Sequence to fold (284 residues):
Amino acid sequence: MKKSMAAVFSLFFVLAIVGLSAAAQDRKGSKDHPLLSRMPNFHITDYKDIEFDSFKFTVDQNKKPVPVNVEGHKYVIRYDLDKGAAKPGNLKIVRNVENALKNIGGKVLVDVAGQWGVFRSSTIMVQKGGKETWVHVKAADSSYELTIVEKEGMKQEVTADAAAMGNDISTTGHVSVYGIYFDTGKADIKPESDASISEIAKLLKNKASLKLYVVGHTDNVGSLDSNMKLSKERANAVVKTLTGKHGIAAARLKAFGMASLSPVSSNGSEEGKAKNRRVELVQQ
Fold:
């Protein structure tokens, strides 16, 4: 009887251990981000790996929280505490993430305690190996979520086509070009814009009599005066690239800036703002 009872208890103990182990398994296909190991006794319960997406990170600017939209390779990883493990608390989780990233050169941009202390969050930016990585951690006492964006420009897979642009100009007198990219607040053309600018040059070479106004447009973030200046500088940059790199005669092009005065969509959403940030070609 004693032996059979001992066997039952042993079996129960083994099953209990197996059950705990199964509950603590990571979600299939998930993994830690290379920059951060996990807190002890935590497992992954949700995982997203998106090649190109955006996230609004909160930063501290003059003691006020300000959202900064960052685009690039995005990861969302949620960790939950293993059953029966002691709760480390949200402050300990956030401090561990912050310190790990500060040890490799990271800078804490904001650190916020949520209402009643239920949650705590932090934004950290790391510049390492020529790459800028943004990390947002939001922690409760027994769970936390990392949102990580490796900042980069989108690899342009759809480019403006010279023939299609020509058709639009012939029909409506203008065409919007979305394949020309700039960093936020800057007028330097990014390398991934080459394909679209080459198509504009092709259009101009195919139609030797065509003269264009190159018009820069922005969303409504920032003041109208600063965006007016920025949109003109961006249009100028396109003109300089077409004349300097592609040999288009300067007399065929004139640069103008419209800031946010001619939107094609509402600035109330990120999608709308993206549509409003464009270069437009208008027939002279």
Observations:
- The chain has two domains: 27-151, 162-283.
- The beta strands are 42-61, 64-81, 107-113, 120-128, 131-139, 143-151, 174-177, 212-217, 253-257, 278-283.
- The helical segments are 2-23, 90-102, 162-172, 194-206, 224-244, 270-276.
- Residues 5-22 have pLDDT under 50 and may be disordered.
